[in-house]
Amino acid sequence: MMSKEDLTAYIHAKQSEARILSHNHLEGIDNYRLNFYKLKEHIDNFLKTNGEYYNRCIMMPGLRGLGKTTILYQLYDYLISEKRILEEDILFLDLHDLKSISDIGLSEIFNIYLEEMHHSIPPSLDKKIFLFVDEAQLDKNWANFAKLIFDKTFNVFMVFTGSSALDLELNTDATRRITKENIFPCSFEEYLLLKHNISLSNNNFKDLILKGDMETVDKAIECEDLIKKEFISLNNLPNIELKKYVYCQAFPFALNLNETIIYNLTNDIIEKIVYDDLADFYEFKNSTNSTILRIIAYLAIKKPGSTSNSAIAQSLNINIRTVNNILSALEKSQLLFSINAYGSAGKMLKKPKQHFFLSPTLKSAQNFRVGRYSLGHDKCYASLVENLVATSLNRLSNETMQALGLFYDSNKKGVDFIVKHLERTIPIEVGIGSKTKSQVIKAINKYDAEYGILISNRTNSIKFENDVIYIPISSFALM
């Protein structure tokens, strides 16, 4: 157990290191993920508000490799360089580092920081300070600590990053006080910004999916025309850049590396999730890790479509209960997500789920490992694009305030996806190569839909014909 003097010395050391670590970490990084700007806005509002600014406690859960630590360092640099916040007013803690030398909790070390650096306790704190905690899931009481500080003072702005295990520690009281900012793999828009420094105009492509009226379509066409002009500075065809993004560059660390290194690092991330992170969700035996990796590879290389858990168990000769537990843990870790069949509650329970990777890059990396995928292979690309569309729609479902459900069509030769938004049913088909509108038209008639959507590489521009909205893949990817 470290003494109070040792902990005070540790705090001083971390504050001295923070500026150096920030400079080293951010060297060569010139652009920002879109999440940075959301947090920056909260910080600006916090600094200029006299009294309570409610969104002063932020949690950022997400997979490894998505740039959460980078965002923290960018926020630190912004505070020091632009807002002229004193180093002593920012406490930056890496819990991997802290837990390697002490089992002290966040509450104790933060109270020592306030006492030694500001001669205060939370209720009497009379200046605005900042607490950044990386890998917060390593302190199982982080959410209760955040709630207590939130309730005791208006003058602490807190950001907690970590794996999706952060969600496990939330209770009703903490949830009401903590603003959640999920960190996902880069969107195509972010890829263009981070890799090519191209900042595209805002678009209404999300509204195009959910509304589908002529006014929205016309506005989407205008947005697309403007974006095409902005693509001129890309010095490459948008579809070629899209392929690079889909195959291997959805993670920020991958933007300036070659394909082989990217795939190896991505597969390393998958293994670290299996070996280190899944234990937060289920107590697997160490011998089960190889089984988990086999299931991940199986889901990556199988043909698109639903597969029952029993089929996975039979194909890999694994106990069905083990398969159920593994898939549940993989979804909680956010490596995978699943969607149900469209229909009644009974149908959803009877039909198997479809599983997708959080990013097509994860699926691609697993296929690279077994020598399966090639950039020039249409079937391979089609599978990854379907995962891209599923990922984008799943993200839209999580971000939309109004009720939105994402399903697959279990009927023979049904469409790839069905979005249920309010009272509207929206069939969506994804086409690479020879796919036509016939499946969409059939689904429109079957589900009495107002319109359907065909996302395809066979159309160069957004258009609306005979109740079908045609969207190029490169435009949809900017949603």
UniProtKB/TrEMBL annotation:
InterPro entries: AAA_14 (IPR041682), DUF4143 (IPR025420), P-loop_NTPase (IPR027417), WH-like_DNA-bd_sf (IPR036388), WH_DNA-bd_sf (IPR036390). Residues 55-192 form the AAA domain. Residues 284-430 form the DUF4143 domain. Gene3D superfamilies: Winged helix-like DNA-binding domain superfamily/Winged helix DNA-binding domain. It holds the Pfam family DUF4143. PANTHER family: AAA+ ATPASE DOMAIN-CONTAINING PROTEIN, ATPASE. This is ATPase. It comes from Methanobrevibacter olleyae.
